[in-house]
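1st attempt posting a full record on here, be nice pls
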Amino acid sequence: MSRHFLLAVSALAVLAAPLAAAPAAPVAATAAVDQSAALNAFFADYDKAALARSPMRSAYRGLKTDYGKWDDMSDAAEVADHDFDMKWLADMRTRFAGAKLDPQAKLSYELFEKTMARRDGGFKFRHDGYVFDQMNGAQADYPAFLINIHRVDTKQDALDYVERLKGIGPALDQNIAVSNERAKNGVMPPKWVYPFVISDAQNIIKGAPFDNGPDSALYADLKEKVAKLDIPQAEKDAIIASGRTALLTSVKPVYERVIAAMNAQEPKAGTIDGVWRFKDGAAYYNERLANYTTTAITAEQVHQLGLQQVARIHDEMRGIMREVGFKGDLPAFFKEMRGNPKFLLPDTDAGRAEYLATANADIREVEAKLPNWFGTLPKAALKVKAVEAFREKSAGKAFYQSPSQDGSRPGTYYVNLYKMGDMPTTEIEALAYHEGIPGHHLQLAIATELKDIPPFRKFGGYTAYSEGWGLYSEKLAKDMGQYRNPYSDFGRLQLELHRAVRLVVDSGIHYKKWSREDAVAYALANTAETPGAIQKAMERYVVYPGQATAYMIGRLKISELRARAEKALGDKFDIKAFHDVVLTNGAVPLDVLEANVDAWIAAKKA
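the predicted structure (as tokens):
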């Protein structure tokens, strides 16, 4: 990537050379090119050094550096990583403060400062995070990584897979040590979280070779990947045998230690759900809000914004009620829609297959319309996949994984079909557009494929931007002619309402001292979601403070900027150009996004 950038700026320098008749401008331009190239070389060096510290991050990027190793998960390593980042930040300021930079290099400088400030803010509260929980817990992360990220293209890749199986023991032991240390200081998830974690851990060591059942998830994955290799069968058998040994001698014992540690912590865990209970809980929650929303919004403002948005969406839903001829008020309509068999697929393999097929069909339909709405389109393929059985009980409703930079791994939309009763057909479209196209896949694949911007911009992220785009995309699909069935449009509004409710309940739990039951009661009274889906959602917000607030806050900003551009430019407004402005700089904080759009508006009006 950096080579492409240097080639590009070299071309600019060559083009500038004939302007010698006006010396002042070419000298300044050449200085800007030289210093911009130097800054981008600096960022390339930073990326190379950062990847060398993280085998897992390298693998997510499609690289196979230290392919048989795991990251160091100790607190000492986290301190060292922070020191590493702050050193690079200081070096950038020393070398490039006041440098003559082109616009993209200036933006990169600003974004690197903002990225490091964000990491520094989070580092101060690192001891307040949960190591094991049902959303992002270490017990599920390692198996999911091996199954979904560790590619096996060669015999050596397969041997590295086995090495990682052997290394899960030391890696998870580090996580256990950090979790136990935090527990001593009272940082534990609520008591109800522990059965989920224990269940996940038990699922990993269920099946062959651990018992006489069908192959366990990891054993089956290893066998499937090795079977595709073009090597002698004897070599395949030897790798599988080594993997079996690693599962029995490393994976099983450490997962038994995870279970023991969770069983030891559970009696000491409390029943209060909000992080306000921590000694620095209020400051921690404020930092989480700033981190995820990239704004200075307060917890009280989040709560009030949520109430306002809930009221707005309720009004829009009443329009759907009138369209379908429903007689009754909105709570009655919620009751009619909630769990209605008319909008559920069978809780069978056939029902799950139909769900995936419908989601794929919706994505293909909107994909054909993209050239009329976007100037830049992604090259990476998109795969729709059900969440794996070993983690479906605890995993979220839907999520997305970016493609690798080399194109060897597609973008993946994961949908959780554990309970079909919680996945109504009315929401299939909106979820597919949010996680797939024109949502996360389009945005993140474009970012991954961008040329001539530093890796930290291509592969970094800001939740308000990325999730704001996902939620904006749900409504954008309506602009594109989707949701022709009014009940699907209700599903879109239901998911938007879900994000508005998040503002109310996340701040309710972590700021207003609501219990999980208070949050569930609010959602039941104000949405058409099923009790099971609501319960799972509230459990997510408890262990993931602040994150869920970013969706609506980001979406409102993107919609606000589009409306501003449409009003300011009138006939000059081009939706494809607007989307390019939003998407072709990579992920940015909301204030930077606003500045970029305002600059585009000014340039178009000039």
